[in-house]
Amino acid sequence: MYIAHGYAAQSATGRLEPFTFERRDLRANDVLIDILYSGVCHSDIHTVRNEWEGSVYPDGTIYPALPGHEIVGRVRAIGDAVTKFNAGDLVAVGTMVDSCAECANCKRGLEQFCQLGATWTYNSPDRISGANTYGGYSDLIVVRQEFVLKVTHAKEDLAAVAPLLCAGITMWSPLRHWEAGPGKKVGIVGIGGLGHMGIKLARALGAHVVAFTTSESKRTDALALGADEVVLSRDANEMKRHAGSLDLIVNAVAVQHELDAYLGLLNLDGTMALVGVPAEPHPSPSVTNLIFGRRSLAGSLVGGISETQELLDFSAKNRILADIETIPIARIEDAFERMGRSDIKYRFVIDMQSASNSTRS
Questions:
Q1: Where would I find the Enoyl reductase (ER) domain in this sequence (predicted)?
Q2: Which end is more exposed in the chain, N or C (fewer Cβ atoms within 10 Å of the end residue's Cβ)?
């Protein structure tokens, strides 16, 4: 066993505090990774606060809860059967650490839709031992090699790579699936941790990008991120000017809101893909908006392993990174509080070297 140091919550109302625990011994196909950086995702907050009980987590959060699924690190050791990695390699781990590998979806490279259920990086039963998984708010992790990703970015970019493992791939997957690119007009709803990556990636793919925000103060920011146009969604006239014009909308807003106003912006055969999971359901949209225009309302999860590797390679080649603020692990509760009031542009990343220091002090 390997002794790990991290931060975990003991209950839905408890604070994230120092937590020492054991990582499993290496299985033959495992990789032991020293974690360098861990991104902070809204999913972490939902999980720690048990806000997804009955939806994402039918039985609720399992405590202690140790989140973190945007992981960049360095390989310390490998199992006897590992062929893809060596000690010293820079690597990444995203939202999954295992799947059945045998179902039709896994064989298509869509492990996130494993028919037997993917093993998530945290709050999920290990496929072999049944033990609850602990995530990246820790100094090391053990992961099956098939779920470890290669990182080729420069050392100075590594912290900003971490959010690609959830925020980035959550936006990349629908953009790729619905073929965003030259000649396509793509809307990004919500200019936050996910949305800011969506703007950058859609622009890099060659699409005409329209950003939607409820805040006038974000107009300049969205343009700086690469949006061709910015629409204040509270302004009916601005919205009307784009009626029936968008090929794809990726809606990254994770709070309950009306969907009809956006569905009306889609052109014939256009699609709106929802990627945020609100604590309360969205009001049901009107069927009329879908029928008159043969429009689709869809959902999209994170991408599979091959798609995530594609994103990392694209990011390294084009130097498309998250806008981040780096923090020590001891400031995680402050980060959660600031995220609750949208006081971050646009993603917190924990310098995990601080985990060992703070848990041993």
A1: 14-350
A2: C
